[in-house]
Specification:
Number of strands: 0
Order of helices and strands: HHHH
Number of domains: 1
Largest sheet: none
Number of helices: 4
């Protein structure tokens, strides 16, 4: 019974990851891609997947990095690139 539940959670997590990644790939604007990645639960789905696979430390790291740090870095980079384009 426990194995069936674990398999179901893994499958659901993988579907969420695939859906969020597809939505981000279909978004054209890089700034919106960063928001889509953080809001569409890609980090949450991966954290759930890592928790099911018994890696809670990796899950916590994924939550911190995937939902906050990575989108912030992408948004700051996009802002800097856009400023340089305006100057040129």
């Amino acid at each position: 019974m426990r194995e069936a539940l674990d398999d179901t959670l893994v499958a659901a997590s993988l579907l969420l990851v695939a859906a969020a990644a597809t939505a981000a790939a279909l978004t054209r604007d890089p700034a919106r891609q960063a928001v889509v990645l953080s809001l569409l639960a890609l980090a949450l789905a991966l954290a759930l997947l890592f928790t099911v696979l018994q890696a809670p430390d990796v899950a916590l790291s994924q939550l911190a990095v995937g939902s906050a740090v990575t989108p912030l870095m992408i948004l700051l980079t996009v802002r800097r690139v856009r400023r340089r384009r305006r100057r040129e």
